[in-house]
Design brief:
336 residues; alpha/beta; 7-stranded parallel β-sheet; two-stranded parallel sheet; 10 helices; 13 strands
Length: 336
């Protein structure tokens, strides 16, 4: 089985590639190595993948229409996992076009490629951000997601709608995964936990928004990868004809599904900071600030649908996951 992973030098892409290579897949990875966060980290991830005989890397931007078309002409893929995207909420306030080019136009390029060959399954990264300012918790896939509060969230919602259209029109088995605050070793420096660790270690103050009154459904990277791998191997087959009347309004006749993938245990931001302090052996200097535009107070995943579909739910306690991250972070920063 050959799988295309877009964004293979990214946090989740790197870990997924490692896992699939270990499982015997052939992995073809693409990435544009953009400078949204330090490229040295992306290159370090790639250096750990490239010695594997079943790994191929191509430098390619998702928004390069001609390049993406050529990729699908030259290569045959059994499955595609689209993880490449312009990430971040605050960055979208200053750089909106980047999100349209990568997350919308780039994603259509992936879908166009998939319809040119018999892809067995397309899995793509959505986000918990699609729930916007939803006050009902936990967030269920059946909840309305019509009111995003950031451009990033809007592009992820657009991905779900466009993906469904392609699945319906061209019979592409497609699954979207709404990730909930993924963390762990080899993580993204733009994420709060990474920024916090760096600032605490340097003795610098950290910005704590909404005066610390926030919750996140932090999900450890190994749990995310286990979920992605299981989903990847189970393309959606069900149609409306096999659904009960009660379930039909929440599902599509297309081979298309969306799942939450989160820890199902929201953690107070201040508790998260205290765990980082304990792992680093240092006390954080806290700079409490009001809520930032585009942010939400809490995220909390209802994963019942995912558990039913793949018989797995995230299991890593936050205390264990943070310690694994801190151990890696200290080793990586010392090496750097």
């Amino acid at each position: 089985m050959q799988v295309l992973i877009t964004g293979v030098a990214g946090f989740i892409g790197y870990h997924l590639a490692q896992r699939l290579l270990t499982d015997g897949w052939q992995v073809y990875g693409i990435d544009n190595l953009n400078e949204y966060y330090e490229v040295t980290l992306k290159k370090a991830r790639l250096e750990r993948l490239q010695p594997h005989p079943h790994f191929t890397f191509q430098y390619l931007d998702l928004s390069d229409r001609a390049g993406m078309a050529q990729l699908f002409q030259d290569q045959t893929f059994d499955a595609v996992v689209n993880l490449a995207a312009q990430a971040g909420v605050r960055y979208s306030l200053q750089n909106p076009w980047t999100y349209i080019d990568s997350n919308v136009s780039g994603f259509v390029n992936v879908l166009e490629g998939c319809r040119q060959q018999p892809i067995q399954h397309l899995v793509f990264a959505s986000s918990s951000s699609v729930y916007g300012a939803n006050m009902k918790v936990p967030f269920a896939v059946s909840d309305r997601t019509d009111f995003p509060v950031s451009l990033y969230a809007a592009t992820k919602k657009a991905n779900e709608l466009i993906a469904h259209t392609y699945s319906h029109l061209y019979q592409i088995p497609t699954t979207g995964l709404r990730f909930f605050t993924v963390y762990g070793p080899w993580g993204r420096p733009d994420m709060a936990y990474f920024k916090f660790a760096k600032a605490i270690q340097a003795g610098q103050a950290i910005d704590v928004y909404n005066f610390g009154k926030m919750q996140r459904d932090f999900t450890y990277i190994d749990d995310i990868i286990e979920g992605v791998v299981r989903v990847l191997q189970q393309p959606p087959q069900q149609s409306l004809a096999t659904l009960s009347p009660a379930d039909q309004p929440l599902n599509s006749a297309a081979q298309f599904r969306v799942y939450n993938i989160g820890n199902n245990r929201p953690v107070e931001l201040m508790h998260f900071i205290r765990l980082l302090e304990a792992g680093l052996g240092q006390t954080a200097q806290l700079n409490f600030l009001p809520m930032q535009p585009g942010e939400v107070v809490a995220t909390y995943a209802d994963v019942d649908d995912l558990v039913q579909a793949i018989h797995f739910a995230p299991v890593t306690p936050i205390e264990t996951g943070i310690q694994h991250f801190v151990d890696w972070y200290l080793a990586y920063s010392n090496q750097a």
